[in-house]
Amino acid sequence: MSKDIEIICIGNEILNGTTIEKNSAWITARIRRIGGNVSRITIVRDDPKEIEFTINEALSRNPKWIITSGGLGPTYDDITIESIGRALKRKFIHDPIALAILKKNYFKRGIKKLNKYQLKMSFVPENSQIIDNLIGTAPSVLIRHKETKIICLPGVPIELRHIFKTHISKLIRDDYKGIFFKEQFVRTLKIRESQIAKFLEIITKKYNEKEYDFYIKTHAKNPTSRIPKINIYVSIKGYDEKIVNIKFENIINKIKNEIYRLEGVIL
Hints:
By secondary structure, the chain is of the alpha/beta class. It has helices spanning 12-15, 23-33, 48-59, 80-87, 96-107, 116-119, 157-175, 193-207, 241-261; strands at residues 5-10, 38-44, 65-69, 92-94, 123-125, 128-131, 140-145, 148-153, 180-189, 213-220, 229-238, 265-266. The longest helix is centred in the C-terminal third of the chain and has 21 residues, at 241-261.
């Protein structure tokens, strides 16, 4: 059921601490809600060999999707698309659709003639699908390689989010069609993670079946307080909506009963 998705975030600014990487968390949350599964998040420098190696390593695991963020712009260190082209051993071509998008986007900003740095963003690996960027300037690129789709998104969060919501989310949703997903936080007071840990371990083993992907995680909200507060996250997904709903309700009720047995409070 996994149909794994991998995210690769690219940029020296992430690894040197000048930029806080938030794109992967935002993307992962959206993928989770449609029943998808992000199996790996990787951060690499703006280094062509590192990007090429990371792409090839990800492809060796045969994910359904590889989503990259960053490195699409006009500067010398924006090398994501070129590096992916080399990893796939594809020719790097001047794409007329990408050029038209760039001209349109820069014209809106009062620029009528593109310089070589702006034109750089119109070169893509052959057989790429170009996706417009209505917020910024650099278009995104979708590349199909065997059974894997590679989508290159800009690193600027507002641009990435718009392109993902407008174009990519539906494509990913289609790949997970027929998978039903439910999630809930059970918020508690007066019990600690260590008190309920054994029960959660037992229930996880009982409900985690091949056909139904079950996940549970405790989050301590004030571990130093004398009155503990924890949130218990529960999710399940599977192909049979009725069984997913039944299993989910059973799990939630068992957790609540255990909280009450431990003399905890459910908020």
